[in-house]
Write a structure and sequence with these properties.
This protein is mainly alpha-helical. The chain contains six helices and four strands. Helix 1 runs antiparallel to helix 3 and helix 4 packs across helix 6.
Amino acid sequence: MTPEQLRAELARSQQQVADMAAAQEEFLRAVSHDLRAPLRHVTSYGTLVREVLGDLPPEVVQGAEVQEALGFLATMDQSARRMGLMIDGLQALVRASRAPLRPQPVPLADAVARARTTLAPAEAGRDVEWRVAADLPTLQADPLLLQDLLVQLLGNALKFTRPVAHACITVSADAA
């Protein structure tokens, strides 16, 4: 192939990659949008059912069947909130995919501290010990995208240590 043909082939390949990225972004945007409506219905109707059950006479509300139904509603509500977070994650992925990278020096310790501040409500009332290494490096990163990453990562650590009486979350870095 001649250099001109190679350049033309490269341009075609780059256009294909750009087209596929745009299609993926549009798909993720459509999916996250389309999932919101049924999720709103699930949470709204769950609240309505809980209100109807709450209007029953106290002796009925304390019955095993109603208490079991309230337990089912709590599980449904928790699952709906988890699905909402997943949809938020899809939307964050769409935002991240179209945002231009703006790499700059970011002290990782500062970024971890900001992420912990964001996650403070998820930590409230829990016994969580944070072990953040003192020697965290300064990274060459996009500050906003790094912040999103740390909130998701540390949020998962909080979420998956919820059943533990005393959680210990360690943040460290390895040069490799």
